[in-house]
Amino acid sequence: MATDELAAAPVPAPAAPAGGDQSAAFSFSIWPPTQRTRDAVVRRLVETLAGDTILCKRYGAVPAADAEPAARAIEAEAFDAAAATGGAAASVEEGIEALQFYSKEVSRRLLDFVKSRSANTKAEPPEEEAPAAAEGETS
């Protein structure tokens, strides 16, 4: 069969359930996200924290060993916050609102984390320079 024939071939409609109710045949839920989706968010956070990103250039990259637990904590806190406010979404619209809140929480918590880490790094003098500075003050 040629490709043109495949494109023109009619696609059979899905069979309707016995009661004729189309909504029972398909169920769609946007909230809560699946574990697979949550794991993808964590992987992306790790890439953002430890990779060559604008965020890392501005606030400093997070070592890979620290990026994974930080990413998991950021995602879990954002999920818990969204679950507390959105709960079990009764409609698709409520699910979308909960997902938007979750996304904003992930972003906000990520930014808070890199800013606080950057501030902590700047507040602590490098270990090699601290004794040299102390020696210079006593002379």
TrEMBL record:
Q: Does the keyword Electron transport apply?
A: no
For this protein, the record's Pfam families field holds: WPP
Q: What is its main location?
A: cytoplasm
Q: Where is the signal peptide?
A: none
Which keywords does this chain's UniProt record carry? Cytoplasm, Nucleus
Where found in the cell? Cytoplasm; Nucleus
- GO CC terms on record? cytoplasm; nucleus
The biological processes this protein is annotated with in GO are: lateral root development; mitotic cell cycle
* InterPro entries per the UniProt record, alphabetical: WPP1/2/3, WPP_dom, WPP_sf
Q: Where is this region: Disordered?
A: 1-21, 116-139
WPP domain spans which residues? 27-123
Q: What is this protein called?
A: WPP domain-containing protein
Tell me what organism the protein belongs to: Dichanthelium oligosanthes
